Amino acid sequence: MEQEDDERARVSRSTATRNELSGRVSGPVIQAGYIFGDVNVSATVGSPDSGVDTEGLSEELRQSSQVWRSRFSSVDFVNLPRMPMLSAGEVVIRAARRARLDDAQPFGDQGMRAGEFVRIAKPLFETWDAEAVVLDASTAGKVRRGMLVSYEAPMRCRNAPRVPLKAPTGDLAKDPHLVFRVGEHRVVLSFDPRWLTTSTANTTLHDAVRSPQIFSGLGQVAAVSEDGRSIRVSALVFGQPQTLAQAQWEHAISSSLPTPRGLTADDFRNELSVRERTPPHGARPEAGEVVDLSSVALFFDEDELLPGQADRAVLIQVSRIVSEYRRDVSLAVASLLPPRDLSAADLSAQLLAREPALWKTFTVPGLTTLIKSCNLAVVTVAGISRQQAVDLDEVMREDSRSPYVGAMELDQNLQAHQLLFPESDDYHLVGAELRLKYSAGSRVLAEANGEDLDEPLEQWRKQGLFQSVVWEEDMAQSAADEREASLFLQGWFEQQSD
Question: According to CATH, what is the number of the domain 294-431?
């Protein structure tokens, strides 16, 4: 454990974790702290006597802060004793308890339980929401001691750990550490080798002595040299990002169906890795391209949604993106209910595959993890262009606390889309008028339940988002309701006659 002897402060820990699986929190953008043994305290962005514009620097770094997530091929290091310093760290502690780890004993002393922890924690790091400043060329000269940073780079190992693994001495000339460069800055990543998860992780570090290995992770700035050219980061988590070949192999062994046509290597890239973070398929139309109106499906973490939150958020953003005189947009809201006989990997592939390629912000591994880790809700939007779909995705991501997780083009000619996405619309936005959809069946049911038919209209009118709010009948759905009712009555009369 890192020991710092020139600062002391009160303990401050956040307990604002909202989701057991995702690690989402409602806390400050930059979660930072000085570490004294097992104690952490809040830290300011700059020291009082630094002579810099602390407020301006804080805001600039806040703009550079991002939610850190990683899709690891291997989780090589997790400093369990320091996880409580993170607001999102509680979910890692729970994973350790599920694996029946003794958090007072290093991984090497716990046999198969260490491997079980890695199995549980690996997908966790894809979905949790620890926010950190991205350590890159634009931020390396501005970070301060105590700040939480994320990193990904080819690194070399110095003083590779030897068995038996021992606690650090505090002398970098003896202790194992990783080194890499960020622009003109040299970064030293120190770690306690006792918290390497497996013997394979140790072997990887020995490989990094001979040639650089790519590591991604999260850590805390422990020291910055006077000239700012050298930075020491104390590691909290690190591992090797999943590669394309590994993603394709994992999909192959976890799926029971052949990979559908229409998927490419790009659909298996590691979009959480800075080295593979490319724009989604068809992100923006080429100049002069004719863009037809299309439909998209927006996905939300349903476990985090409040009633009506997704409806309102999407309607507001569609109103911002689509000019009023061009608005003729239909929306539907529903839960995504995966078939029980289809694996998450197969379902993801079926949803995302098409020739020509669908526009999408998901990859197959990314959507697979989401389906496994949380309940999903979808809002379908029909009547916007692909350019507007891209803009809609971007504005939905502006709020880092939103349960919005991504989008894809909707094609009702695809069987998976027909089965999983709603067919009937809930809203019709025309100009500045919002029309709430109803059918003969839904109206009969509402009246039978004694519902106030004016209440939904009044709720939307009170929000003041639209010039008018009215009912509109879904004629196709009403006809379907009447056919269903007719068949039911016919069957009932036949039973009575028998």
Answer: 3.30.70
